[in-house]
Amino acid sequence: MIPFGWARGRILRVAPGYNPNSSSLGVDVSFLLFGTIAVSAITFVTATAVRLWRRREAAADAHERAAGEG
Amino acid sequence: MPTSARRERARVGAPRARASLAPQYRPERFGGIFSMHRPRGLAYVDRDYARSLGLPESPLWEGPAPALGEVPLSAPTEVHLVLSRRCAAGCSGCYVDATPDGAALSEADAKAALDRLAEMGVFHVALGGGEAVDLPYLLSVARHARARGLVPNLTTSGLSVDEPFAREAGAIFGQLNVSVDGLREDYERSRGFDGFSHAEKALRLLRAHSPHVGINCVVSRDNADRLGPLVAFAKRLRLSEVELLRFKPAGRGAGVFEDRDLTPRQAKRIYPRALWWAVRHRIRIKLDCSFAPMIFAHRPPKRVVDFFGVQGCVGGDVLASIMPEGHWVGCSFGGPREGRWDDPEVWARGFSAFRDYRARAPEPCRSCDYLSLCRGGCRVVAQAKGDWWQPDPGCPRVQAWREAHPGEPLGSARPPPAEGHKLRVVG
Questions:
Q1: Domains (ranges, CATH) in chain B?
Q2: Residue B1 has pLDDT above 70, yes or no
Q3: Cβ-Cβ contacts under 8 Å, B297 against chain A
Q4: What is the per-residue pLDDT across B174-194, written as a single tens digit (0 to 9) for each?
Q5: Which of B20, B167, B198, B368 sees the fewest Cβ atoms within 10 Å?
Q6: Contact flag B308-A15 (C-beta cutoff 8 Å)
Q7: Which of B345, B292, B346 is nearest to B321 (CA)?
Q8: pTM of the model
Q9: Using a CB-CB distance cutoff of 8 angstroms, which residues of chain B are in contact with residue A53?
Q10: Is residue A55 part of a domain?
Q11: Which residues of chain A are within 8 Å of residue B43 when distances are taken between CB atoms?
């Protein structure tokens, strides 16, 4: 089971959004307004999204294994 | 990339039918990258974090972990697929010298290139041109990208966008931006023709079918002081973002660069203005990579800008382009040709004209706290001002250094002749 709370390691960077521009790479400066508060908030949201996904993956893998054995 | 790493990436990142919004993952030497679709974005994590999620050990993790950005990524996170140099608009500053009969990647080649990018582990592709919407196979190519797990994004002039296109595009593309350099006469002054009403119509059509629609605005000396109304216009149309792009000396833009390049005062003000517009209009404001020196000149907290991926020239690392003639370049605005899109070795061996600047950076870049992020600013602007390997002359810090050292030329990071970098501006 993937633990939901505390994790080892760090989220190093989050580049929000998709870049539609076919000639250069845009970066959202709106987040810079909020400094380290934005870093903390985005880290929390990202960690939650990633860990939810991994938990679902792990559960699905377990289900597939059980189905295969059955 | 080792075959085992490719297999691992495919297995871990394989989208499952039950969870089409599931993130994708690829290992990197520092750890790994998740491409997320809700919320949208890329998350870079270290090795311990990836391990704590139960992800498998990667062959890339042998040896000590480099810091993020210390070595090039195993593949770009985003590739610009410049589908054609074909466009009838005739904009006076067109970066790709587009004409009605310009070169184009064939549909088969474009799809094969997307297959190759998916194999490499690329997450996002930005389709463009020329006017990509004029290509009859654009939507087919975008659907192919989706089928291969890539997120296709698009920038268009909007001239050819109609209701059926908008409906389909809204369902396929991740983000859709329309190029609008100003309202009404500002648009005409910038592009050389009166296309604002077409652009506005395209924005409304696209917005009716997708919430992820925005404006791309090329910022030049003419319009830099009149962008507030454009941002307000974007807000009125309930668009998701305004992306501000520095005018580049590429294609037909090279001939008018001296007239359109920002004044030092305008360059210094673009970042605080962008923040103000974000607050005033409550809309996402993006600045493109070539504006990085103008951001760093205000000395934002390094930890924060690093976390949000504010970087200068990331050509040949985070980003690369495939041109209509079928070759790789580090940036669609310029740099040497690096080999054909189907050459499997090109990523590992090429792009030194982009990757090598930091190691040899001259003053004032060398002593700049932001060098590891900024990477010397825009190489294409540096080239237009005399030397690809010099610091970006538009950087406020570089300009201050020149004032403090009158008569002294800017240094160069040019490698010794034996290393033989040949540069040719493409675009």
A1: 3-61 (no CATH), 78-353 (3.20.20.70), 354-421 (no CATH)
A2: no
A3: none
A4: 999 999 999 999 999 888 888
A5: B20
A6: yes
A7: B346
A8: 0.91
A9: 19, 22-23
A10: yes
A11: 11, 13-14, 46, 50
